[in-house]
Amino acid sequence: MTFLQNVNKYSHGAEFQKQGGFTLIEMVVAIVLLGVLVPFVFGIFGQVSIFAARGNVVEQAFLHAESKMEEITGIKEINWDWADDPDQFEVDEDLPDNYHRVVTVTGFSGWGDEGIDGWEVDVVVTHPMLPNGVALSMRLTQYEDPH
Question: Taking the model in full, what pTM does it have?
Answer without folding.
Answer: 0.63
